[in-house]
Write a structure and sequence with these properties.
The complex is a heterodimer of chains A (about 210) and B (about 475). Chain A is mostly helical and about 210 residues long. Chain A is globular, with a radius of gyration of 18 Å. Chain A contains nine helices and two strands. The longest helix of chain A has about 30 residues. In chain A, strands 1-2 form a two-stranded antiparallel ribbon. Chain B is of the alpha+beta class. Chain B folds into three domains: about 160 residues, no CATH class; about 190 residues, no CATH class; about 100 residues. In chain B, about 60% of the residues lie in helices and about 5% in strands. In chain B, strands 1-2-3-4 form a four-stranded antiparallel β-sheet, covered by helices on one side. Chain B is globular, with a radius of gyration of 24 Å. Chain B starts with 16 loop residues before the first helix and ends with a helix. In chain B, about 45% of the residues are buried. Classes of the chains: A mainly alpha (about 210), B alpha+beta (about 475). Chains A and B meet through helix 9 of A and helix 5 and helix 6 of B.
């Protein structure tokens, strides 16, 4: 429990460690994209943490990084193929950002810092915690950006071919003009910056 | 050993001179506020274009952001900066709290809806100022940040409400604002297209032309400038260098294209250059402190403005360039200190002259197409013939990038026009769709040059029109009429 809380709160990858910002900024235009990306990253994170932790004794120190990347890339390819097969719409929406999970710094970072040193249980929990932290953070960013930027909440849209539902809700009445600035890349930075400020001020008050 | 204290700008010798500076600024702005009341309230009222509310709307329009920014600053200073009691009172007295709102009201289009205005003024203070740690720490001019938010988000909404025009101008002037005219016409323009629709250059000088609420009158800005220089409130070198650079560059460009003195005058008198150069660029916090730095800052601002006006589809270059140069103030100050060295300053001067030369040359080659006209914004991507039909895939640069279209021509007539891809602002583009402009283009293809663009989406619709014209020209070259 403590490990998971650590991942979500004290070492939140987005707000505290500032890792994996590329996908954070790029795909948070819709709420749906955010949680789907979160699930993908969490899966890869747990998987890579467990595998690396299992074989950590046999990896020579000087080829550590290539081996880690190889494992992560394998997992990402698995995810990519699954998504492409079962939810092609999601695959199209993610585009390049799905294969780019390979170079997501959170995953390599956790592999080096945690998985190559700790036992399997700890690594798995750490992966879960960090993954949850990442997912919650980008979900929050996406929620703010989508609600104010385009006046909708997309719960299921491109995944609807898989679930059979479409769920897109309007939030404000018609005459609310969405702040389309927030959907632009600059809006992503702004939202992230402000949330980071709020998050860290809370965190500081908690820890002191 | 001397002791140094770290301090934030503005650096004043007097004890409470920030308060005094603020006072003088308000005094200097007062005539401009009254003028905007006269131009946007009284004149339409006299011509029975607006009612009693419309008469006082300009004043309200300036008053609202002023009050709102003051309140936001007060709340923010309490909650975010955690100032209390006497400290809070002291902070408010020194923090220019009224000024961003006052400026914001003056640099926005008159038809901005009030809720949007409120939104902009809150963000101006919150994100432009308080997030950085309050007055003195901000990098960007708060009023410009507010304007940036409003214009990037709601430009389409404002345009659909009438944009920059007051009720009287809406009926009397059929053109767009002077500078957006500059971006839509072919080539460098002429007196008839640029100045004549708005009367004479005297109108530009006094400010009786369409434009933002309070930034049109160069005359009043000049008076304010003299007053502020006399009271030593602003850094006059920036304003002079800024306006001078724009004048010099556009005069050169005009000269090379056979235009006389009216052309640079038109350039410096339109688009709020005077207002921007005198009030916004000289903001005490976000402008250089060294003398050489101020001169450099002014020159770079001028160059950037000219670049923006000629190379982008943004008609208004002043406020954007000030925001951009705000980023470089620190570097410019450093350059300023270094250029006290004679050799280095000579080097700097030479490089500026070279930059200006290249710029003028570039603009000149871009705009002076005598003889055969080739539109640099147009490109033919694909062309193939099916029976008698010729199918073109062409693109034309619009407001947000190239607009990709498929045009089918048969016997010299357009059969089909379809937009495949575009990157225009959705709110603008929806106006085009609503007016069914594509159909109009097909219907009126014989009289295209005289066809009006869609008001509210001038640049996008003009791009579409040019696209059709260019494609027809392309067709004629290969297949005859």
């Amino acid at each position: 429990m403590k490990i998971i809380k650590n991942g979500i709160f004290y070492e939140n990858p987005v707000f505290v460690l500032l890792l994996g910002l590329c996908s954070t900024l790029a795909i948070t235009t819709k709420f749906e994209n955010a949680y789907l990306m979160g699930i993908c990253v969490t899966f890869v994170l747990i998987g890579s943490n467990v595998i690396i932790s299992l074989i950590r004794r046999w990896i020579p120190d000087n080829v550590k990084t290539p081996v880690f990347i190889l494992i992560i890339a394998t997992l990402v390819t698995i995810i990519e193929l699954i998504v492409k097969n079962y939810a092609n719409d999601v695959y199209e929406v993610f585009g390049i950002y799905l294969p780019l999970i390979v170079v997501n710094c959170i995953i390599l970072g956790r592999a080096i810092v945690v998985a190559s040193k700790q036992n399997v249980g700890y690594s798995a929990l750490d992966g879960l915690g960090i993954g949850l932290g990442y997912t919650l953070a980008i979900m929050l960013i996406a929620l703010i950006r989508e609600v104010f930027g385009s006046n909708t909440i997309t719960l299921m849209d491109s995944i609807s071919s898989l679930t059979g539902y479409r769920a897109i809700y309007h939030v404000f009445p018609e005459n609310f003009i969405p702040i389309s600035f927030l959907v632009s890349p600059a809006g992503a930075f702004l939202t992230l910056g402000i949330l980071m400020g709020v998050f860290n001020s809370i965190r500081k008050r908690r820890t002191t | 050993m001397k002791e140094y204290h770290e301090q934030t700008g503005p650096f004043c010798r007097d004890q409470d001179s920030t308060t005094k500076m603020m006072f003088h600024l308000v005094i200097a702005l007062l005539p401009i506020v009254l003028f905007s009341f006269y131009k946007n309230g009284l004149v339409p009222y006299q011509h029975h274009k607006v009612g009693l509310y419309g008469l006082f709307h300009p004043l309200l329009f300036i008053l609202i952001p002023t009050v709102v920014t003051y309140l936001t600053e007060w709340v923010g200073a309490r909650l975010l900066l955690q100032k209390k009691g006497l400290e809070l009172k002291d902070y408010m007295r020194h923090s220019y709290a009224l000024i961003p709102g006052l400026f914001l009201g003056l640099i926005l289009p008159l038809n901005t809806p009030i809720p949007i205005l409120l939104f902009g003024s809150v963000l101006a203070t919150l994100i432009g100022k308080l997030v950085y740690g309050g007055f003195g720490n901000n990098i960007f001019n708060p009023a410009l940040i507010g304007r940036l938010f409003i214009i990037t988000t709601y430009a389409g909404v404002i345009a659909s409400q009438g944009g920059y025009f007051n009720a009287y101008e809406l009926d009397t002037i059929s053109q767009a604002t002077p500078l957006s005219n500059l971006t839509t016409i072919e080539g460098i323009g002429s007196y008839e297209t640029l100045v004549a629709p708005y009367g004479t250059l005297w109108n530009f000088f006094t400010g009786m032309i369409p434009g933002a609420v309070g930034e049109t009158s160069a005359l009043l800005c000049l008076f304010a400038f003299l007053y502020l220089v006399w009271k030593k409130v602003i850094k006059w070198k920036i304003s002079i260098c800024y306006i001078g650079t724009v004048f010099l560059l556009t005069a050169l460009i005009g000269c090379l294209n056979g235009l006389t003195l009216w052309y640079p005058m038109f350039q410096i008198l339109s688009g709020g250059l005077f207002f921007g150069a005198i009030f916004m660029a000289t903001d005490p916090v976000t402008s250089p402190v060294t003398k050489q730095g101020q001169i450099l800052y002014g020159i770079f601002l001028g160059i950037l403005t000219v670049i923006l006006r000629y190379f982008t589809s943004y008609p208004e270059g002043v406020l954007t360039s000030i925001l951009t140069m705000n980023l470089f103030v620190f570097i410019i100050d450093k350059l300023g200190i270094q250029s006290k060295n004679k050799e280095k300053s000579l080097l700097l001067f030479a490089s500026i002259v070279i930059i200006m030369g290249i710029l003028v040359y570039q603009i000149n080659t871009l705009y002076s197409y005598h003889g055969e006209k080739v539109d640099p914004n147009f490109s033919l991507i694909e062309e193939h013939q099916v029976g008698k039909k010729v199918i073109y895939k062409v693109s034309q640069k619009g407001n947000g990038g190239p607009i990709l279209c498929e045009v089918v021509i048969q016997n010299g007539k357009i059969e089909k026009l379809e937009v495949l891809e575009h990157n225009e602002t959705p709110s603008y583009y929806s106006i085009i769709e609503k007016e069914n402009y594509l159909n109009t283009l097909i219907k009126e293809q014989m009289h295209l040059p005289e066809l009006d663009t869609v008001s509210g989406a001038t640049i996008s619709s003009n791009a579409l029109k040019k696209l059709v014209l260019n494609t027809l020209q392309e067709y004629e070259e290969h297949y005859g009429k």
